[in-house]
Write a structure and sequence with these properties.
Distance between the termini: 26 Å
Number of helices: 6
Length: about 260
């Protein structure tokens, strides 16, 4: 991995408490070898498939292809791990069935998980705004899968800090849930108040999110006032790990919003 000596793991304090215990969040920070402050991308991880393998909750998630792409262009990359993920404290509770055996399809159970993820990002941003190595005028939010829709929704909910938002294969629920069109549309429309351009990158062969449904989500986002461009690429759900398919598009996007 590029500039491996500049990759560190931090535990950041938050205002969150669960069962009376303060919650810390894990954050992987990848810095270029040049001097800062750096333009910074906050990159958000996805789910764990169906949510039925608790051992996966404790895997710290980063994306080497994303790291290398941004480091090579002088950007710092930050990977926050939300509550109950990786080494972060607290309960992982982003929309489970009542028995917690897997993710819930019901909107009333699933969508509060998005609110919980936004709460976690609020704490991350408190920390980011205090860092001297961050160029506060050049902040980008991005993510893959659940992290992709989270990036768009968060930019719409808290638009001021960000120059842009990038969504790789975003969606909150996959097509095995009959409610996925409603839930995903509702989540993405929350990003519509963000007035800067967003970038949507979707694999045409994604087994979780059919490309027609992804386009429908984008159309709903645009109809609600959102701004952005949609790109259907050849990859599947692992598109984020195939920079040969998206690097040119993302580089153009960064140049356009700079």
């Amino acid at each position: 991995m590029t500039n491996a000596n500049h990759i560190t793991t931090e535990m950041i304090p938050t205002r969150l408490r669960e069962r009376g215990v303060p919650v810390e969040l894990e954050m992987v920070v990848c810095k270029p070898s040049t001097a800062g402050p750096y333009p910074t991308v906050i990159f958000n991880h996805g789910s764990t498939g169906s949510g039925n393998r608790p051992a996966l909750f404790r895997h710290t998630r980063t994306n080497p292809s994303v790291t290398n792409f941004f480091l090579d262009r002088g950007w710092m990359v930050v990977y926050p791990q939300r509550r109950g993920r990786g080494k972060s404290g607290g309960l992982y509770d982003e929309g489970f069935r009542l028995d917690r055996t897997e993710y819930a399809c019901e909107p009333e159970l699933s969508l509060p998980g998005l609110d919980r993820a936004i709460e976690d990002l609020d704490e991350v941003m408190v920390h980011i705004k205090q860092r001297r190595d961050v160029d506060q005028d050049r902040l980008l939010i991005a993510g893959a899968s659940r992290g992709g829709v989270l990036a768009v929704a968060y930019a719409g909910s808290r638009p001021d800090p960000f120059m842009g938002a990038i969504n790789f294969n975003g969606g909150w629920l996959g097509q095995l849930c009959p409610t996925h069109p409603e839930v995903n549309r509702t989540a993405f429309v929350r990003g519509a108040p963000f007035t800067n351009r967003t970038l949507w990158l979707h694999g045409s062969h994604d087994r979780y999110y059919r490309i027609a449904q992804c386009r429908a989500n984008f159309d709903a986002f645009r109809a609600a006032g959102g701004s952005g461009s949609f790109h259907a690429l050849k990859g599947g759900h692992g598109l984020v790990e195939q920079p040969e398919l998206w690097a040119e598009v993302v580089a153009g996007y960064l140049a356009a919003i700079a």
